Amino acid sequence: MTTIDTDPDTGLDPLEFAVTRNLAAKSAADRDAILANPGFGQSFTDHMVDICWSVRGGWHRPRVSPYGPISLDPAAAVLHYGQEIFEGIKAYRHADGSVHTFRPDQNGRRLQRSARRLALPELPVPYFLQSLRELIAVDGAWVPSGDDQSLYLRPFMFAKEAFLGVRPAHKVAYYLIASPAGAYFKGGVQPVSIWLSEDYSRAGKGGTGAAKTGGNYAASLLPQSEAYENECDQVVFLDQDRNVEELGGMNVVFVYKDGSIVTPQSDSILEGITRDSILQLARDRGHHVEGRNVSLDEWRQGVASGDIVEVFACGTAAVVTPIGVLKGRDFIDEQPTGTLALELREELTDIQYGRAEDKHGWLYRLDA
Ligand SMILES: *Cc1c(COP(=O)(O)O)cnc(C)c1O
């Protein structure tokens, strides 16, 4: 049981989580074997957190329980109408053994924005933060200590009411699970190749593009397969005016010859916390940073003329990834490669892993 005082901003008392230990928890040896080579999203820790919500009862029955299958009524609304949202955030082990996460208040607020768009209840940010601490309290040993390793935390929320009528569900569940993650790129960061999706979009004006919801990912799977068929790693989407949006799960950033940095901004793009942090670090270095529309033509012409000197993608899972090639149905544009993307990547991960001073107060300790 973690003890936290009443939240000064919201006046909320902390939840009292009922903790049931997993009697079949992995042995230290089995866990270490997994942590030696965790991959991504394949193994899960011994416990999970859930909190129920209902129209009548609000948020209730907070629990920490053994990780395992969820029992759902076949009529649960999420299975039919996709009323679901999620988050992605990492826990990092510092050299002194302590466990920290990065700007979790931002993830908590984004979960609330996603909830609003999907007509789900908003989990108070203090409850969100407490859920992370509760899981680390029982599964802290699962935070790996190797280079570029982390414990990937996956909060999610879905409509569990058994009802086939179409309306926001009256019963909802919030869950948190965790999965140890290794270095995303084995053998160093390699530039990725990007397929331009011309036939499919991921979001539309007024749609759910700015929400972190499974439906956006469902819509991206077919174009992503098209990318693989065209020997590309990832897909990039355009909006209805042929402006660049983002990749399936990463934001895009352009670096110009004069040092200015531009990133697409619109209500159909997911606002990444990695991007926001990287751009702040760039501003700290004196770069001019702008969020605005970037058309496909501006991208292609900027690369051709040498105006654009670097293009990269960013998100929690892979942090920062240079874009090496943009491939369309009838063109292949090699992308210029600079050093800024990898410098910013290092600066960010140095903060996350406690190797550099946290000037912006971005770290949040989870294990104390
Ligand atoms: C999560 C996500 C991102 C990256 O956001 P971060 O907060 O940086 O992890 C970008 N695009 C989409 C579609 C996403 O779902």
Q: What can you see in these coordinates?
A:
This protein has 368 residues and is α+β, with helices and mostly antiparallel strands. It folds into two domains: 18-183, Aminotransferase class 4, branched-chain amino acid transferase, N-terminal domain (D-amino Acid Aminotransferase, Chain A, domain 1); 192-352, D-amino Acid Aminotransferase, Chain A, domain 2, CATH 3.20.10. The chain is 25% helix and 28% strand. It has eight helices and 18 strands. The chain has helices at 28-36, 78-81, 104-117, 125-139, 214-229, 273-284, 296-305, 340-352, and strands spanning 18-19, 47-54, 58-66, 84-86, 89-93, 99-102, 150-159, 171-181, 192-196, 234-238, 244-247, 251-256, 261-263, 289-291, 308-315, 319-328, 331-334, 363-365. The strands form two sheets. Strands 1, 2, 3, 4, 5, 6, 7, 8 and 18 form a nine-stranded mixed beta sheet that branches. Strands 9, 10, 11, 12, 13, 14, 15, 16 and 17 form a nine-stranded mixed beta sheet that branches. Helix 3 (104-117) crosses helix 4 (125-139) and helix 6 packs across helix 8. The longest helix is centred in the middle third of the chain and has 16 residues, at 214-229. It is globular, with a radius of gyration of 21 Å. The protein binds pyridoxal-5'-phosphate.
Sum up the structure in keywords.
368 residues; D-amino Acid Aminotransferase, Chain A, domain 1; 2 domains
Question: How are the secondary structure elements laid out?
Answer:
Elements: E1 18-19, H1 28-36, E2 47-54, E3 58-66, H2 78-81, E4 84-86, E5 89-93, E6 99-102, H3 104-117, H4 125-139, E7 150-159, E8 171-181, E9 192-196, H5 214-229, E10 234-238, E11 244-247, E12 251-256, E13 261-263, H6 273-284, E14 289-291, H7 296-305, E15 308-315, E16 319-328, E17 331-334, H8 340-352, E18 363-365
Parallel strand pairs: 1-3, 9-10, 9-16, 13-14
Antiparallel strand pairs: 2-3, 2-8, 4-7, 5-6, 5-7, 6-18, 7-8, 10-11, 12-13, 12-15, 15-16, 16-17
Helix pairs in contact: 3-4, 6-8
Bound molecules: pyridoxal-5'-phosphate.
